[in-house]
Amino acid sequence: MRLLVVEDEPDLLAGLVRALRKQGYSVDTAPDGEEGLYKARDTNYDAIVLDVMLPRLDGWELLARLRETKATPVLMLTARDRSADRVRGLDAGADDYLVKPFDTPELLARLRALIRRTAGQTRTTLDIGEVQINTAARTVTSAGRPVTLTAREYVLLEYLALHRGDVVTRTELYEHLFDESETTLSNIIDVHVFNLRRKMGQDFIVTRRGHGYCIE
Ligand code: CA
Fold first, then answer.
1. Which CATH number fits domain 125-214: 1.20.1290.10, 1.10.10.10, 3.90.320.10, 1.20.1560.10?
2. 109 C-alpha to ligand 1 centroid (Å)
């Protein structure tokens, strides 16, 4: 899952990025509204964390312009606990909001819910045959036994599971699993899939030659 965080306070931004990367998310950042809008239009993010008070272009204006072309889920950060601001954000097309200061675990939980809803999932667990993925706890069991995955393996598995039945191209996986700061080896996705199959069974992820990967 790849996220964009648009936030002009350096300490808050750094803390958020650290917490999100620790969860296995790929994270791009923008320190002002103009750069944020450019990136939000240019890349298909799984969700955007958007501060309201930003230099150059504020969060409201960014959101309004983004919504002309894109429905990317947006979680807004508002500094003021005023219901008028919350109403304005939701009316402008925000999918959720958090009032600053907020607890990081709550932000993470809201992001997970947002990404789940966007994929059409209302439950936190995904059942695929004997495999159960708990998207809240980020744990995986197979036939009741826990499967130990790296953070990157988990997000790859979750992404394929949320798009179950669809063939997900390698290009799409690279866009959603790696951020702008990473130089990726061209075969790194294949390596993660190889490791997932070793842990989950060879047939769990199907290769569609020339197209990509699929969980059926
Ligand atoms: Ca701000």
1. 1.10.10.10
2. 22
